[in-house]
Here is the input.
Amino acid sequence: MKPRAFGEVADVFRPKLLIAGVAIVAFGLAVLCANGSERTERVADELVAASSVLPENEGRLVIVSGTPQLADGGVIVDEEAGLQVQNAVSYSRVPLQKVYEKRSREVVVDYGEDKLSEDDDVKETEYYVVQTWIGADHKRDASIDVTAVHYENPSRVRLSAHYALGDLRVSGFSVSAGDVSRYLQTEDCWFTREELEQACGPYIAHSELALRAVSDEDGCGMLSTGDEIGDVHVLFSYETLEGAESVTIVGRQRGDEIVLEEDDLVSEAEHIQPGVVSREEFVDAITSEDASSRKIGIGALVLGAVVILFALDLWGK
Here is the structure.
């Protein structure tokens, strides 16, 4: 009986061990391919240290260090609304409209016999309606019926939103604010009611809505037609740059931009480094990381081979 029992167990585990061994080998091969010495050599050959934009580096992999700064005083102009901000990392104008929205929640209709446990509770989905603010041009249900109550939603309001980012530069290279946002210290800012009254007259007239400048409970200015269903708020805000940390960026020079390409030689985590990192320090770091990864890959290959051999050995018993 014992040999038979062992055989039955072996029959169960042989395929699983074989599959596990193949998976481990595949993982090891993937790590080796992703972190082979060829990548390190290509980075070392292609990477150029740059302190300014040079035509001969167009399309090349460059490493740039410096403190992000706003070009041209960080001026962002919203011509449609008649507004302008300075030292701005970002600016937004967002039209919202108050509408009805259908939502759901689980409610207990029977707590069951065990009042201390929820396992035997009987629940049902309950639908209800709330009043909420959404993008003025966003899709909404034309009408909603809940518990014998009918709600009619207002039509969309065709007011455009506007978003803009300031032009950030590092050593003369234009970089995306989103790429270096974690290294920026910013402050949220709003306009006052008086500033909107003074600047937004043409915008209000063109909208053909009964908009007027008001202040919210925090003293921030906005344009509003009221607070009832169908009414519109236009919110304005911007971020100013209050400080920045030095960074090192590795990417492709495209014109005066440094572009972080997902399928490039460097990984996403390697594109931006805190502080000032020299070309030699960067190459040494990825060489060390790739060597460690190769050890992991080789270890996985050996382990996978052992598991496969053990599975094949079981097959012969």
Summary: The radius of gyration is 31 Å. The chain has three domains: 2-35+288-315, 38-68+250-278, 70-244.
